[in-house]
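Can you please make up a whole protein chain along with its backbone structure tokens because I've never seen that pairing?
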Amino acid sequence: MDALTTALKVGASGLAAQSERLRVVSENIANAQSTGETPGSDPYRRKTITFAAELDRASGGSVVNVTSIGRDAGAFPLEFQPGNQAADENGFVKMPNVNTLIEMTDMSEANRSYEANLQIIRQARELISMTIDLMRSQ
């Protein structure tokens, strides 16, 4: 029964981590066109997320936790938009360093990982239920 409880904890930690990852990716996509408000000002900077495996002392299992949410230090691409309020004297606007193709790929991967962790929880729950049913029948 301890192994099943550990599986539940591992699955739950994976769900929480992937939920946070999906939130960060969604925020990046939502701000993919968010420029600065004044000429030459910096636009939205892409957020990144870092995970780490940690030992859960109570169960002895390895769980995943979000260790930090950082900012991508990559350069801002420039676009020629002379009518934009954030355009510099040459008409160029700093755009966010968000690549929507990368974000969509990351979202797809996070969604698959979320589903896998959800499946672990479902199976562990089913096994716990079966174990309880076996114990009742004896």
Notes: The chain is about 50% helix and 20% strand.
